[in-house]
Amino acid sequence: MAGLVTQYVATAAGAYGVAVLARTQDQAADATLGVGRRLAQRIFGVRADGEEVLEPLADVIDDPDDGDNRAALHEAVHKALAADAELAVQVQQWVQDAPKTGVRVMTSGERAPAVHTNHGIIASGDGNIFPQ
C-alpha cells in the first residue's frame, strides 16, 4: 500500500510544491492530485505557510522525478503507516475509495514508460538488442 500512496503523494507534491500540506479550500481539478494531497496532509500533517516540511517530502517537492527521493518518501510513508494502525486503515480506505472512473496510468522517473496494457517488451534504456 505504501507504494501506491507514495505515487499519489509524489504526484500531488510535484504539482503543489510545499503547498501540498497547506490547509486550503481549493479542490484539486484532477482526482489524483486531490487524493494525493489529502493523503499527504493526513500522513505528514497540515503545515502553515513557511513551516518546515519533512525532508523526504521536501526532496520529492524539489525533484519529483528523482528515484532516490521517491524511495525515501516511500520509506517515510511505510514507517508512518506501520506505526499507526488507525492511520493505515483510514489511508487504505481512502485509496480504495479513490475515483475509479476511466483509466489512470502513473509513471515516474526519466524516460519511464506509461502503459495501460502491455503484451511485450518495454525497454527504456539505450542500445537495447532483443534477438528474435
Q: Helix count?
A: 5
Structural class from helices and strands? mainly alpha
Low-confidence stretches: none
Quaternary assembly:
single chain
User: Main sheet, how many strands, which sense, barrel?
Assistant: none
* Radius of gyration based on Cα positions: 16 Å
What is the mean pLDDT? 79
**Helical proportion, percent range:** 40-55%
Strands, total number: 0
Q: What fraction strand?
A: under 5%
Taken in chain order, the helices and strands follow as HHHHH
Structure characterization notes:
- The protein starts with a helix and ends in a 35-residue tail after the last helix.
- The chain is mainly alpha-helical.
- The longest helix is centred in the middle third of the chain and has 17 residues, at 67-83.
- It has helices spanning 2-16, 31-44, 55-62, 67-83, 85-97.
Supply database-style keywords.
mainly alpha, single chain, 132 residues
Short account of what is shown:
The protein is an all-alpha fold and 132 residues long. 51% of the residues lie in helices and 0% in strands.
